[in-house]
Amino acid sequence: MPGFDLILQGYSGAVASEGKIQNGQPEVVWSSSFIDFSTGYAAANGILAGIIGRGKTGKGQLISTSLLGNAIGMQTLRIADIDGVPAPAKIWHETVYPDLVEQSASYEEIQKSYQQAVRPSIYHCYYRAYKTLDGGLALGTLAVHARKRLLDVLGLKDPRVTNPDYDDTTSDAISQSKRLVSKFEQIFASKSTKHWFKKLRAHDIPCEPIRYVEEMIDDEQVLANKYVIEMNHHTGKKIRTSGPVVRFGDGMPEEIPSPALGQHTDDILMDVGFSKDQITKLHSDESVA
Asked: Alpha helix locations (H) across the chain?
């Protein structure tokens, strides 16, 4: 298959899992080429592991990875399957999906059914993003104690949190869960992002405002950790870009910008054993830039 991040997003189920629809069309993940990046990380880790293994055994070996393998690996929580304990997504795919296809249901209709079936009810209100009066807020109350504090702050009750024996699979419980989600959404939409951030963090409830990546260029924490760095480009302009995501206690290597086309050709050829005369001939033959 074509080796493109977007193609693998569609093939591997990532697009369907995201469930995003824009103007009636399936929407891919645009914020990051996450399959490309994860494949690069996997390749680097595999090479390092191979070097360590060779150092211990004296024997090298072929190392390989793929976009498809990493696309699947990045969705481990969704693809895991246990005999005798089918996940809601698998039940939906085996029972509901065939009927929808037979009925020629639209992509939007299929996605609506899919998302309702596969997202655990606890994620509908406790681990998600909310629209506020003037923006958005990401809420991460996975822990029970955090959910209890959240309910106290919002003045709501949820037997799924307070009663460990509560059966949340009954039709009444499902209806109650939907009503609770609606209340959460109404409450968060009534006040500003700043209000909710200050109030929730005061009660040790994990949350952060939804921000734009452009804001990260001047973010205090990002700059303090050098996750964004400034460099002088060969064009004479200063550029700011993402920095190394791993820090080394004994010092970091020099940060240099991306080179001009052919800038390091001679250095690389010399490193692999070509002589100056050979390199000159390669240039004259236009074999290298």
From this structure: 5-11, 14-18, 34-57, 67-73, 76-79, 88-95, 97-102, 107-118, 144-154, 159-162, 171-189, 193-202, 220-224, 265-271, 276-284
Which 8-state DSSP code applies to residue 119? S
Give CA–CA dist 135/151, Å, rounded: 22
Please write the tens of the pLDDT for every residue from 129-186.
Answer: 999 999 999 999 999 999 999 999 999 999 888 888 888 777 777 788 888 999 999 9
Task: Assess contact for 70 and 35: CB atoms under 8 A.
Answer: yes
Instruction: Give me 82's structure tokens.
Output: 């246990």
**Does an H or E element contain 228, and which?**
strand 228-232
Q: Structure pTM? A: 0.79
Q: Is the separation of the CB atoms in 129 and 138 below 8 Å?
A: yes
Topology of domain 121-209, CATH: formyl-coa transferase, domain 3 (3.30.1540)
Domain ranges for the chain, please list them: 1-80, 121-209, 223-256, 259-289
Q: How many CB atoms lie within 10 A of CB 38?
A: 19
